[in-house]
Amino acid sequence: MKLSLSLLFAGLLASVSASNVVELTPDNFDSAIGKGKPGLVEFFAPWCGHCKNLAPIYEQLGDAFAHAKSKVIVAKVDADGAGKPLGQKYGVTGYPTLKWFDEQGNIEPYEGGRDLDALASFITAKSGVKSSIKPPPPPETLILDVHSFDDVALDETKDVLVTFTAPWCGHCKNLKPIYEQVAIDFKPEGNCVVANFDADAQPNKEIAGRYGVSSYPTIKFFPRGGNEVEAYEGPRTEQAFVDFLNERCGTHRAVGGGLNDEAGRIAELDALAQKFLGAAGDARDYIHKEALTLSESLGETAKYYIRVMEKVVNDQESYIEKESKRLASILTKRTMSPAKLDEIKTKANILSAFVAKKLEEAQEKVESVIGRATAEL
């Protein structure tokens, strides 16, 4: 009975520790590589920090191609231990070094990212074998490389914020979900681009060097018009990025998506809106005409100021309160498209220019009553 339990325990332990990454040594390397089946081989050293960071990812890579062991190999060599002769044979001078061996054993250095998606995509491209990894949704962050960087970052019609990152960088991994949300926030802004650049990928290193990238993440803002590139040195929070881009791009985006409370507001018409509600009769008509003339040169959102004034002129003062509640309800439910919600938010913001005046008047009346009551005591 004890023997049976020992065998069962040993079997369970073996199944838990089993790896789909093939361990190669000088004894089995030639029988596995270059014999009609391609493979990716990692040359590592047990003491190497970067190798330790890569190890769990590489195990996942082996699992991702475990269903296709007859077609492609995911392997590793301890190039500072039993596999040292192999490391010397294949010119390994740093760790980890990854090399692709085709069916005949021809070698190509792997110089891409060290994240699971990059590694799996490389093997798929080289072997035609698809991994078992469920593809993530495409990022909203625009991914740049050596071929697309200049076309986007140096486009004189666009403002572009670029994070220069490395797949193995812990701070970059922490920043990624925050930065992705910023990209979502600014998705409606075609001329304010949120982008990422893998500065550690070998083909991209010349561009990274051009901009003095020596640590990760490095964040730089490329303004429209070909102006001088600006280093971003603010906090790495969604709020800080949104504030920075709104200031540089001239936008009015809000944390979490949508527009902020300033979108659509026009200072000149705000002032007239407040005067309008405080006026009556001919004075109100005069202000309306003044606003109408001014709006002709102030863009599309100016027309909504005029519409609100016309509703009030036609004895519909309750329109402001009712419409504000209606728009607020729509914004709370968020069932419309992002573009339509932006339109609704802009209208709500403009209405608030009129509401602010009414609240101010109410406060003044309260203070006046309190003042008279105090004087009578």
Task: Explain what this protein looks like in three dimensions.
It contains 14 helices and 10 strands. The protein has 377 residues and is of the alpha/beta class. The strands form 2 sheets. It has a 5-stranded mixed beta sheet with strand order 1-3-2-4-5. The protein has a 5-stranded mixed beta sheet with strand order 6-8-7-9-10.
Features:
377 residues; alpha/beta; five-stranded mixed sheet; 14 helices; elongated; disordered C terminus
Q: Report the span from N to C terminus.
A: 99 Å
Give the helix proportion (percent range): 40-55%
So how many helices? 14
Mean pLDDT: 89
What is the CA-atom radius of gyration, in angstroms? 32 Å
Q: What is the H-and-E element order? A: HEHEHEHEEHEHEHEHEEHHHHHH
The main β sheet shows up as: 5 strands, mixed
* Beta-strand share of residues: 5-15%
Low-confidence stretches: 1-16, 362-367, 369-377
- Order of strands in the sheet with most strands: 1-3-2-4-5
- Overall form: elongated
Helix-and-strand structural type: alpha/beta
Counting DSSP E segments of at least 2 residues, the number of strands comes to 10
Give the structure's gist in a few sentences.
With 377 residues, this protein is an alpha/beta fold.
Chain-wise SSE layout:
Layout: H1 2-17, E1 22-24, H2 29-32, E2 39-44, H3 49-64, E3 73-78, H4 84-89, E4 97-101, E5 107-109, H5 116-127, E6 142-144, H6 149-153, E7 159-165, H7 170-185, E8 192-198, H8 205-210, E9 218-222, E10 230-231, H9 238-249, H10 267-278, H11 281-295, H12 302-313, H13 318-333, H14 338-376
Parallel strand pairs: 1-3, 2-3, 6-8, 7-8
Antiparallel strand pairs: 2-4, 4-5, 7-9, 9-10
Helix pairs in contact: 10-11, 10-14, 11-12, 13-14
